[in-house]
Structure prediction request, 214 residues.
Amino acid sequence: MASRRPSSPRKEQWAAALRVDELSFHDRGPYSFTVEAGQCVGLHGASGAGKTLLLRAMVDLDPHQGTVWLGDTRQEEIPAPRWRRRVGLLPAESFWWYDLVGEHFSRPPASEQLVRLGFGPEVLGWRISRLSTGEKQRLAFLRLLANRPEALLLDEPTASLDAANIKRVEQLVLEYMQSRQVPVLWVSHDPEQLQRVADWRLFMDGDSVLHREA
Ligand SMILES: Nc1ncnc2c1ncn2[C@@H]1O[C@H](COP(=O)(O)OP(=O)(O)OP(=O)(O)O)[C@@H](O)[C@H]1O
Prediction:
């Protein structure tokens, strides 16, 4: 983990921690943990353990008890769409509802980020139907960053990518996290990836328990 932090200029910073407070949903939980500002926590556990459900509850996509805090703001204090802009979820499978890539960006993506993930500006005119799975995953990630979320919830964000693009996405997340001091919760089945990106890890077992690991 020692060499993982790229240096980058400090931009706008929010520096708010993300705190999960006695969160339970369906028949799981309660879960409590904190991701500090500028920190990446890796979340792993067996398939079906409930990692995706946890992320969905954190952005109020499923019914739940307990709450989530971003700094001093409680999830239920602000309308769900606004909360989801502030706490950005990258789902394992991205959703696309318009014909063209560019129609899905509320703000234009940073051209430097587009280039780093292998795209030129013309990608904004591409049809969604022509995209490969990996292209969709990279573009969904860029769409998320373009909204400038104050916290990132990443559900297997590199599952469909080749080794070079995995490294680029990891690098971009860490730069964004560090320069804006956002908390990041990163779900992955790859222990080596979590070793590279995470400050510490949470293991979700089948008995609704989260174990903190170094
Ligand atoms: N709305 C729901 N209500 C109840 N159970 C659900 C609901 N959606 C999913 N599940 C179940 O909850 C379990 C946990 O699903 P989840 O997708 O969170 O697992 P996961 O840990 O993310 O797994 P994977 O690593 O395979 O992505 C699964 O058995 C799933 O079928």
Notes: Residues 18-92+151-213 form a domain with the Rossmann fold fold (CATH 3.40.50.300).
